[in-house]
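Figure-free illustration: sequence to structure, shown twice.
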Amino acid sequence: MYVEVCGVGPSSGLPTGGWEHSQVTVERDGRVSATTGASPHGQGNETTFAQMLADQLGIPMEHVRIHHGDTGVVKQGIGTFGSRSQAVGGAALHLAGGRVKAKMAKFAAALLEAHEGDLVFENGMIAVRGAPSSAKSFAEVAGYAYRPVKLPEGLEPGLSEEAFFEPSNNTYPFGCHIAMLEVDRDTGEPRLLKMVAVDDAGHLINPLIVEGQIHGGLAQGIGQAMIEEVAYSDDGQPLTGSFMDYAIPRASDFPRFELESTVTPTPVNPLGAKGVGEAGTIGSTPCIVSAAVDALSGFGVRHVDMMLRPERLWRVIHGANASPHGAHGSPQGGQA
C-alpha cells in the first residue's frame, strides 16, 4: 500500500512545483484555442484538456485545439513533472475556461436580451433556458464580441482570458497493489502470475487515459523489480550500455493487469483531481519484491535485493537455511 506526494504546492517547501498558467480564447469562428504551460509529452493531456473545455463550454471536442511546447505561442509555464499536469495545469485551464464562459455569457445575454443566469451552453449553442428556439451559436456570439461596434457598458471586445493556478497544498494519490509471484525452486526463475492494482487519483477526467498511465507504470515497476539492471564488470566497465545488453520487459513478461479505482477528491484544486503518472510504478515494485520474499519465506528468507534475477534467487534459496519444501509445501518452489 502506498501514499504518493505530487502536484506539490508551496507548503511542501520544495523548490519545484508552484503555479501553472493557461489561456483560453474563443476565436471569431466560434472555435476554441487554449494554451498550457504543462507541456504534455505522451500522457494524453491534449485529449484530456480538450475534453475538459468541451464539457465546460458545451461544444464538440473537435472544436477545441490545445497549444503547448511552443514559446512563440505559449506565454509562460512551469512544465510537466511530479504528476502535476492535471492537478495544476488542468486547474489553470479550468479557471481560464470559466472566465471566458462568464464573459461570453455577457455578450450572449446582450444579443438574446436575456439574463446571464438564464443561459445554457449546449451543443455549440447558447440558449435561454426553457426557450431553446431562442439561441445563438458560438460563432455568432464570438462575431459580436470581436465586431467593431459599440458594446454594452462594462464589456471589452474579445473573448480571451488567462489564469494562473497555484495549489494550496500537495495532492496525495494512494492505492494498494497485489502481486502473485511464483519462484522455481530448481532454477530460481520468478514468474509473475497475477497483478492487481487499486489506485485513487481523485476525480478522473478520462478513465481510459488513467488506465493507460497505470499500465505504463506497472510495466516500468515490473521491469525494475524483475528484469532491468545496470551491470558493471569488476573493474567498473558498464556491461549494459545499449539495448543489445540491457534487458527491458516485453508484453510476454506481463500477466493481464486487473485494475480498479476508488475516488477520493482532493480539496486543493477545483477539479478534485490528483496525479496518476507515477502510481503504477510506486506500488508495483515493492509489491513484487515482497511477494518474492513471501514465496521464499519457507527457506528462511527475509530479504531479497532487486532485481529478481534467477541466479540471485537461486543463490538465496540454496544459501539460506533451506527446507525440503517451498513456502507452501510445493517441491517446485513457493508462491505468494
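We now fold a second protein in the same way, so the two outputs can be compared directly.
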Amino acid sequence: MLDLTKLTTETRNINTMNLDCMTPLEIATIMNAEDENAVKAVSQVLPEIAKAIKWCTDALNNGGRIIYMGAGTSGRLGLLDAVECPPTFGVSQGLVIGLIAGGDNAFIKAVEGAEDSTTLGEEDLKALHLSSKDIVVGIAASGRTPYVVYGLKYARQIKCKTVVLVCNKGSVMAEIADLAIEPVPGPEVLSGSTRLKSGTVQKMILNMISTGSMVGVGKVYQNLMVDVMQTNEKLVTRAENIVMEATKCDRKTAEGMLTEAGGSVKLAIAMILFQCSRAEAEEKLRRSHGHIRLALNEIN
C-alpha cells in the first residue's frame, strides 16, 4: 500500500481543523493567511529558480525546447504556462510544451490511472522527439508521480537536462533530476488538496521560469513585451502602446512604423530608436540575437 504519511502535502493543517465550522469570512481569512506561506516558500528557493531560468535560457538559445510534464493540477499548470508563451512572447507553439498524463483531454477531465503509468511519460517524450538540446521540467507536488518519474529517467538517458518542481523535501523526483526546486508551503488548508498552496507555489515558479527565460532570449525590452502577437483588438492597441512607451513617439508614428514593420513590435521599435530602415533594423537585431538593448549598446 502506498504510504503518503511522510509527505508534508498530505498532513493535516492544525490551523484549519475546524474548517467545516468556519464562516465564509473565516475561510477566506485563513486561506489568505496560509497563502503567505506559499510566498515565503518560494523565497527560500530563489537560487534554484535562477539556475533553472539560466538552463532554460541556454536551451532556447541552443535550439532546444522547454518541456513541462506533470499530472493533475501540476500538469494543468505546466500546460497553462506553455500555452501562454506564444501570444505573450511571439514564440512558436512548439518552443514551450506542456505534457499532462493522459493527454490534452486530461486538462478538462482526469484520465484514470494515467499518472501511475510507468511508460506513458517516456512515450510522450519520444513522441516529441526529445533531444539533448531540450530541458524537461517535471512538476508534482508529491515528488513521486510515476508518469513524471519515468519521463525524467528517459530524459536522463538521452543526456537531456532535467529540473523538478516539487513541494516535499527528499522526493524520488529530486533524487533523479539534475536540479531540484523544493518549495514547501506546508500542509494544505484542505488536507491533501494540492491545488491550493502547492498549486500556487508551482504557478508562481513557472511564471518566473518562463518569463525569465524569455527575457534571456530577447523577448523583452525594459519591461515591455516587444514580441507580443496582435491577435485581437486589445493586443493591436497594446502593440501601439508598447511602441509609444519604448520610443516616446505618438500613436500615428507607432501605427505607421508597425505597418512598415509588418506588425512586428520589436522591429518597429528598432526602426525608430536606430533611425534606420527596416532592413538595417533587421540586421542590427540579427547581430544582437534579438536583444534591442544590446543593439543599442553597439550603437552607443
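Summary for the second example: The first strand starts at residue 66 and ends at 70.
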